[in-house]
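Postdoc handover notes: sequence design on the structure in folder B. Input tokens:
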């Protein structure tokens, strides 16, 4: 038997709320990874809503074997295959596989980040408790084995994304079994520490 606990504390005005979400199940989901920094620069060319070219500093380390996520101040366009790179430019084209927000206007400051694949398989339908958090702005995509999106979420730095049974909203990871997690760091300054936790229970 496994048990998990999400503690909640709120303070507003002269009143405080302190409580816990405690759930038990058969096993634990526990993922902890470090996500490398992205590369900052302008969106030099905007071809369409999910294709363009960024100008970045040399040493970016992005190759045509990579898929990137593109962050602006108020958007994330994710799942963009890289088509061309050189020392200071990265060209990407999402085609039909680009997801999330449309790319911002040309010349907008962006961060281009290689996605990290996390080899983790589980069925989100059996979760009874779930939490994810990153130390920087980040993006996570939970996908089936064929890369179809089950759920995708932007994470605000140091703000947990949580769910538990008996919540007033639907389990965000329900659907087909998850075959992998794709994650990226929206910061060009600091590495991200991403943690994904859950309690799984198949007993009905």
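Designed sequence:
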């Amino acid at each position: 038997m496994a048990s998990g606990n999400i503690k909640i504390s709120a303070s507003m005005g002269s009143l405080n709320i302190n409580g816990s979400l405690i759930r038990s199940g058969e096993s634990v989901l526990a993922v902890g990874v470090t996500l490398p920094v992205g590369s900052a620069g302008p969106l030099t060319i905007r071809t369409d809503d999910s294709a363009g070219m960024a100008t970045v500093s040399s040493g970016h380390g992005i190759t045509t074997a990579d898929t990137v996520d593109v962050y602006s101040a108020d958007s994330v366009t994710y799942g963009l295959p890289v088509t061309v790179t050189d020392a200071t430019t990265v060209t990407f084209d999402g085609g039909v596989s680009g997801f999330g927000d449309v790319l911002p206007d040309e010349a907008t400051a962006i961060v281009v980040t290689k996605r990290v694949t996390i080899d983790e398989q589980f069925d989100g339908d059996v979760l009874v408790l779930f939490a994810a958090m990153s130390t920087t702005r980040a993006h996570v995509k939970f996908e089936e084995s064929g890369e179809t999106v089950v759920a995708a979420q932007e994470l605000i730095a140091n703000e947990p994304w949580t769910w538990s049974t008996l919540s007033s909203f639907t389990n965000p990871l329900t659907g087909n079994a998850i075959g992998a997690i794709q994650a990226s760091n929206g910061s060009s300054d600091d590495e991200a520490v991403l943690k994904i936790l859950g309690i799984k229970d198949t007993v009905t």
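Context for whoever picks this up: The CA atoms of residues 70 and 112 lie 5 Å apart. Don't rerun without checking with the PI first.
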